[in-house]
Amino acid sequence: xxxxxxxxxxxxxxxxxxxxxxxxxxxxxxxxxxxxxxxxxxxxxxxxxxxxxxxxxxxxxxxxxxxxxxxxxxxxx
Length: 77
Description:
By secondary structure, this protein is mainly alpha-helical. It has helices at residues 2-21, 23-48. The chain contains two helices and no strands.
């Protein structure tokens, strides 16, 4: 039975040693793994707390519904 857990024990020991000897590398890997997991888990959690997405930002300015007047006084001649 202990032979089944031996690879996991070695992995745990390696991670434990790395966290103490090279903490910057260890936590960089931890944050790198957590990022993609958060993209899947956070949106459902936010919706369960009642978060509603804001309205979309307009992509163009509405033009007035009237005939265009010609501009006077700004000619570059």
